[in-house]
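User: Please work through this fold.
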Amino acid sequence: MTAALMFAALLAAAQDPPARVTIVLVGDSTVTDKSGWGVGFARTLLAPAECVNLSLGGRSSKSYRDEGHWTKALAAKGDYVLLQFGHNDCPGKGPERETDPDTTFYANMARYIDEARAGGAQVVLVTSLVRRNFDPGGQIRPDDLVRYAAAVRRLATGKQAPLIDLLTLSTALANRMGPRECDSFGPVDAGGKVDHTHLNEAGSQAIGAIVARELAAAVPALARYIRHE
């Protein structure tokens, strides 16, 4: 064997093949495969990474646990858990779902982190996807999600957890696109009305790619598992 071939063989042996990694998604409908960014995110992953989407529509940080779904998420034994709640925690969602961003919501999210870590998983916090509602000037109109996102940012600092600030990123994207172009991201009902909260396939692909890009930056160990387009 020549010196060059020997060096190449030694270099190949020194580079460990990627280990299998499971990423569990926990959140509401804006994360699901049906109407959120889950599918778009999963498409960015390279083998042997696996995405298990356990998000459920209509759930909040309170009801997801109360209904027993968090127990199933822990049982999935993910290496990483991406955690996003807020939409259904907001006022007007009913007492079985509503939380206060500074007290009960913060406590619920902190408990999720502690329990996932106790099970051996690393939690990555994700602020909520923006609602694409515009003011007369063509800019996103802030809503209750701002307070929940602020709580998640504080929690990320307090718990030293990686953070993907999706509310900030998706708001900036929506403001650049404007109302008309943003309609291309929303499902359309039988009456022709565009959904400004959830995502169609194009929206899922765009937002999922943002989540993947930010995950690679927040958790460098995962960068090798993410396809950058």
User: Anything to note?
Assistant: The helical segments are 3-14, 38-42, 63-66, 69-75, 104-118, 145-159, 166-182, 201-218. The beta strands are 21-27, 49-53, 80-84, 122-126, 163-164.
